[in-house]
C-alpha cells in the first residue's frame, strides 16, 4: 500500500526556510512525486485524491470470502448492494427455472427464488472443510419433504449442508464424510414461513462445539468431532436436485472461511 500522507507531513514539518519543497530532506532538483517514488504524481495525488490501497476490485475482506445479494444478475458484483468474491468465483450457474424475484427481498430489490423441483444455483467458493460459516436470509412460502436448502455437495456421502426435513419448516445442520455423519437432526429448529429469517451454519475441526446451526434466535450445537470429507471442491449450491419442491426465497448470503 502507498502510504504517503505521513511521509509528506514529516517532510513539510522540517525547517525548509526558503528552500523549495523538492529540496527538503536534501533531495535536490527532485519533485515531490519523485521523492515519493511515484513518477508524475502531484501533491494532491500523494495526499489521497487518487489513493491506491492495493485491493482488487470486488475482493472480500477476510474472513469473508463470498457475499451475494441476488440483485437480478448472476454476477455477485452487480447491483445495489453489490457483493464480493475472489477472481473467477463470482458468478452463479442457475439450473432449472430458478430465478431472481422482486416479490421479496431482505435487502436491495431482488432475491433468489426457488419454486419447483430440480431448481438450484451453484457458485465456486474458497470455503474449506476445516472451518467455515454460511449465513443467509430465508423466506419460506411452502414446504415439501426432505431437501437441502444450502449445501457444499460432493456426493451422497460427502457434504456440508442445511437440510429441511418433513414438517414445520424444520431445519438441521449436517456434516458428512465417508458415510459418517455429524448433525443436529435430533434438535431440529422450526423455521417460520411468510417472513424473513436469518439462517447460519458453522463448522470447525479444531475445537468443540464442532457444528452449529442458528435459525432466527435459536441455536443447536454438536460436540461430536467432524469426519474427513473426500473430494472437496468448495462449490456452494442453493436449492436441491431432487423432485421435492419447497418454495422459498434466499437473499443476503455470506460465506466465511472461519467460525465467526
Describe this structure in words.
Strands 1, 3, 4, 6, 12, 13, 14 and 16 form an 8-stranded antiparallel beta sheet that branches. Strands 2, 5, 7, 8, 9, 10, 11 and 15 form an 8-stranded antiparallel beta sheet that branches. The chain is globular and about 40 Å long. The longest helix is centred in the first third of the chain and has 9 residues, at 5-13. It has 3 helices and 16 strands. The protein folds into 2 domains: 5-47, no CATH class; 64-256, Jelly Rolls (Sandwich). The two termini are 27 Å apart. Helix content is 7%, strand content 36%. Mean pLDDT is 83; it is low at 1-55.
* Helical coverage, percent range: under 10%
- How many β-strands, per DSSP? 16
Major β-sheet annotation? 8 strands, antiparallel
Total discrete domains? 2
* CATH second-level architecture of the largest domain: Sandwich
The average pLDDT is 83
User: Which strand-content bin applies to the residues?
Assistant: 35-45%
Q: N-to-C terminal Cα separation, in Å? A: 27 Å
CATH class membership of the largest domain: Mainly Beta
- CATH topology name of the largest domain, in short, is Jelly Rolls
Would you kindly provide a brief summary of this structure?
This protein is mainly beta and 260 residues long. It has helices at residues 5-13, 32-36, 43-47, and strands at 64-68, 93-95, 99-101, 111-114, 120-123, 131-142, 147-155, 158-164, 170-177, 180-183, 189-190, 196-204, 211-215, 218-222, 236-239, 247-256.
Amino acid at each position: 500500500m502507498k502510504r504517503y500522507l505521513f511521509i509528506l507531513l514529516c517532510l513539510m514539518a522540517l525547517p525548509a526556510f526558503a528552500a523549495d519543497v523538492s529540496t527538503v530532506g536534501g533531495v535536490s532538483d527532485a519533485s515531490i512525486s519523485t521523492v515519493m517514488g511515484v513518477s508524475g504524481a502531484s501533491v494532491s495525488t500523494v495526499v489521497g485524491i487518487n489513493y491506491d490501497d492495493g485491493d482488487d476490485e470486488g475482493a472480500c475482506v477476510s474472513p469473508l470470502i463470498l457475499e451475494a445479494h441476488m440483485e437480478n444478475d448472476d454476477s455477485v458484483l452487480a447491483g445495489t448492494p453489490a457483493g464480493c468474491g475472489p477472481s473467477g468465483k463470482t458468478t452463479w450457474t442457475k439450473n432449472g427455472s430458478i430465478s431472481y424475484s422482486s416479490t421479496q427481498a431482505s435487502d436491495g430489490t431482488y432475491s433468489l427464488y426457488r419454486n419447483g423441483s430440480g431448481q438450484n444455483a451453484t457458485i465456486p467458493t474458497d470455503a474449506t472443510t476445516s472451518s467455515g460459516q454460511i449465513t443467509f436470509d430465508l423466506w419460506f412460502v411452502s414446504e415439501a419433504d426432505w431437501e437441502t436448502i444450502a449445501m457444499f455437495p460432493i456426493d451422497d456421502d460427502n457434504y456440508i449442508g442445511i437440510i429441511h426435513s418433513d414438517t414445520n419448516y424444520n431445519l438441521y445442520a449436517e456434516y458428512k464424510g465417508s458415510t459418517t455423519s455429524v448433525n443436529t437432526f435430533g434438535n431440529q429448529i422450526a423455521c417460520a414461513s411468510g417472513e424473513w429469517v436469518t439462517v447460519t451454519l458453522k463448522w470447525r475441526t479444531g475445537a468443540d462445539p464442532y457444528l452449529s446451526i442458528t435459525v432466527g434466535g435459536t441455536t443447536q450445537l454438536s460436540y461430536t468431532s467432524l469426519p474427513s470429507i473426500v473430494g472437496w471442491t468448495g462449490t456452494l449450491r442453493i436449492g436441491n436436485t431432487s423432485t421435492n419442491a419447497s418454495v422459498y426465497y434466499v437473499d443476503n448470503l455470506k460465506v466465511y472461511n472461519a467460525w465467526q
